[in-house]
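User: Good morning. I'm curious how zinc ion would be positioned relative to this chain. Could you predict the structure with it bound?
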Amino acid sequence: MNPPPPLAPDDLPALLAAMPKAELHIHIEGSLEPEMIFALAARHGVALPYPDVEALRRAYAFSDLQSFLDIYYQGADVLRTEQDFYDLAGAYLARAATENIVRAEIFFDPQTHTARGVPMSAVIGGLSRACAEADTRHGVSAALILCFLRHLSERDAFDTLEQALPWREHFIGVGLDSSELGHPPEKFARVFARCRALGLHVVAHAGEEGPPDYIWQALDVLKAERIDHGVQCLHDTALVRRLAASGVPLTVCPLSNQKLRVFPDLARHNLGALLDAGLCATVNSDDPAYFGGYLNQNFRSVFAATGLTARHARQLALNSFKASFAPAADQARWREQLDAVFERHGVRGG
Ligand code: HPA
Ligand code: ZN
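Assistant: Good morning! Here's the predicted structure, ligand included:
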């Protein structure tokens, strides 16, 4: 038999867009587009400190994680009602369907909203209604992951968990996000233990700006099933061995890392090195309204900048299914869909 024909480089962006994939690291508040910020501000009669959408977009120039978070929390202030949260998640999920995202595990930050007096019922009610509809409307399987803000106390996280428990069946897990440096995972050891006892999945941001030690803590103290970002792991060979042997996935966000200057430029992103090290790396958008692109743009940009190939694309899609918390039968169906797309694009074998 002849070997499979090589994939023409021009076909790679089309293949990346067409292939089914899971998105496992998307903050729903980070999908709040400037246009929706203005629409919601008008809905609620809120005055914004920017004259128009373009002026707001111009403020999206970040130097590090904190400079982004300051603007991100400011933007979230227009989210007030159940309808707002429903509209926000509905818009993301409609967009996800066009990008051939078959599974979305969506982070939300309840403390950002409850601290402003927005009831937990509005936050989880609106988001979960959009997620429940996504399957029939768009063919997207969607689930929610509640994130604790790590710049706040563990006491605050416990209170947030208690407030959310009446909606326990509407989220599948918990995560840890916000300002990483100075807020190590071990600060949240007890609340994560309680979440595990409740049968929740646990994930944590670690090793975005923070050191490899934070990734060790996320694994050993929080017992995280996935590490969000985790790109700093390559500075610690024992940690890389641990991640490879355990198969704990990394949810990598290339455009986020570029915009927040985790790497000097996208060409020097370490996604290829993570895959070469045998790690279960995935590609994700993090906060697409702020970082210049949704999931397919992340794939396109990082592949163009680093020279990854169709073989890597298949691996990343497979990794995204395996790293998801979706039922095994769904994962098997998505793998078959992936094979069909690769066949259609003339790529056979691994
Ligand atoms: N890191 C930490 N917290 C966040 C992020 C991130 O990339 N995006 C939204 N909250
Ligand atoms: Zn994130």
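The longest strand covers residues 141-149. The chain has one domain: 19-33+85-344.
Let me know if you'd like a different ligand tried.
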